[in-house]
Amino acid sequence: MSERIIIFDTTLRDGEQSPGASMNLEEKIQVARQLERMNVDVIEAGFAIASEGDFEAVRAVAGIVKKASVASLCRASKRDIDRAWEALKEAKKPRIHTFIATSDIHVKRKLQKTHDQVRQAAVDAVRHAAGYTDNVEFSAEDAARSDVNYLCEVIQAVIEAGAKTVNIPDTVGYAIPDEFGNLIATIRDRVPNIDQAVMSVHCHNDLGLAVANSLAAVQAGARQVECTINGIGERAGNASLEETVMAIRTRQDHLKVHTDIRTEEIYRASRLVSGITGILVQQNKAVVGANAFAHEAGIHQDGMLKDKSTYEIMTPESVGIKESSLVLGKHSGRHAFRNRLEEMGIELTDDQVQTAFVAFKNLADKKKTVYDEDIEAIIAEEILRLPDKFKLVSANFTSGTGVVPSATVEVEVDGKVKTKAEFGDGPVDAVFRAIKKICKSRAKLLRFTVSAITGGADAMGGVTVRIKENGYTIIGQGAASDIVVASARALINALNKLEYRKRTQETAEAEKPSL
Ligand code: KIV
Ligand code: ZN
Predict the structure, then answer these.
(1) 14 lines ligand 1 (CB under 6 A)
(2) Does residue 515 line the site of ligand 1, with CB under 6 A?
């Protein structure tokens, strides 16, 4: 039997650090539920001390996850560790993940400490964490650029102090696969107590090598890989879960290891994370991109018709991609709707089902056929929204040839309905001007993207906006059968997220460690 690779997902922590990718509590819970369906081994739910919002997210995820370990990141300090434990203590399998940087540049320039001080801080942190749980992970930040002798000393010391997982991050995505594999092999050979801990890797993608480096590390003995859905994360992102897992599955013959991931859940996880964060998946992205299983060249199509394995090394079904299935129409009742939600793995309360059902009926009146993707959009629109400060009540607009586009918009602000009328360069511009006046927002629109959620002229339109205000970059999304209404919803969603961000960002940004 081949050895198992532990899949540690950090979408909710490192992934959430992508510019604009912040998620609210309800969204994080939905992602955690999907990760659990997928059978991920460890879910890093946040960085508890970073903000009130992170703390609540870790606590909430710890409360709902049943099988996976739930981890919170913390710096190598007692205060951070205590806060992480406070958030994690109700989890079935809590994991404290503490870290400190070990590379010369980080030790001297960022931490302004000596190497001895850093080693001592690491040992003290692990000992303190081990007083709460024996499930302690230690990360040597910027390990890939650290002096290998010093790195080995630190790893040996933290294992003696009680670390059960030692993580070797390539924090800045600098390593080359054979070099990184050699580093892992050196640690395996030189650290005398390495057999008492699991070796883990955490690779960033600055040179596009995060997955390759992770696999090289697996070949050298690493048994945990840290990754994110769609590879989202700081800068160019992290190793992508779907690529790592499918490489291991597809090339088991060569790698001789396996994971316990239910790969059929990968595509849904990818869509969910992309839908929530607004970070679109590139068309040609491996495994989950729109073209990942599309065969265009005639010669390929001919081969595929004769035998799929001529050009397909894995099947779309193995990652959960199927033809859009026709699900429901306007005559479908609440029972059928609820059944479909269950089949799609969407867990809602009775009240939430009722809210979603009303939205489904409205859509089914306008559209002949309602697909899974439409239902996902309804859930994102009606259920995953924040406890909103701003609510769109109505948007009416005129545009066309020979008229100056104008809009009249009503928005409920803290329960009071306010109205504004504005002109604009087009109907979306007029609607945005009116919303910004009502919400007293000076946000700058950085990006505006429209896409059809399903095919056909009656498709639901999805709009993603990226806005910036007071140094915060926020992504908002909206869906509706009318593109202008979808745009209004997207802007309102972004403004609500901005409010939430301001409310929950209690710890000053400056206090956050840069990872
Ligand atoms: O990239 C990094 O080094 C990290 C660690 C804190 C694990 O995210
Ligand atoms: Zn990282």
Answers:
(1) yes
(2) yes
